[in-house]
Amino acid sequence: MPASKPKIREDLTVVELDGEAVVYDERTGDLHHLNPTATVVFGLCDGTATGRELASDIAVAYSQPVEEVVEQVQGLLRQFRKAKLIEAASNGSRVGSRNG
């Protein structure tokens, strides 16, 4: 089974201010506050990359060890899934392709 490519639910309201985000889920009435790190990861969840690919891109951008960043990103993605803020992109929704 291929790795899932997380995608932000389209029905959420997201407001970013000073590097942090507030996410409102109208279905549940829940409000989520994301710190700067979570905001970066959340913003990258566009359905075009796996969690490992996201972590690799972040590690390169911030000159951090990939495996350390993978752990942190996977943890955030678990929290996003638990809060139902992201979903797996459907196979037919490929916006772009990634190499490698």
Description:
This protein has 100 residues and is α+β, with helices and mostly antiparallel strands. The chain is 36% helix and 22% strand. The protein has three helices and five strands. The chain has helices spanning 36-43, 51-61, 66-82; strands at residues 6-8, 13-17, 20-25, 30-34, 86-88. Strands 2-3-4 form a three-stranded antiparallel sheet. Helix 2 (51-61) crosses helix 3. The longest helix is centred in the C-terminal third of the chain and has 17 residues, at 66-82. The two termini are 17 Å apart. The relative contact order is 0.22.
- Give a quick account of the main beta sheet: strands, pairing sense, barrel closure: 3 strands, antiparallel
Can you give the helix content as a percent range? 25-40%
Oligomeric state of shown chains: single chain
Report Rg: 13 Å
Sketch the topology as an H/E string, one letter per element. EEEEHHHE
Average pLDDT reading: 90
Q: Tell me the structural class.
A: alpha+beta
How much of the polypeptide forms β-strand, as a percent range? Answer: 15-25%
Beta strand count? 5
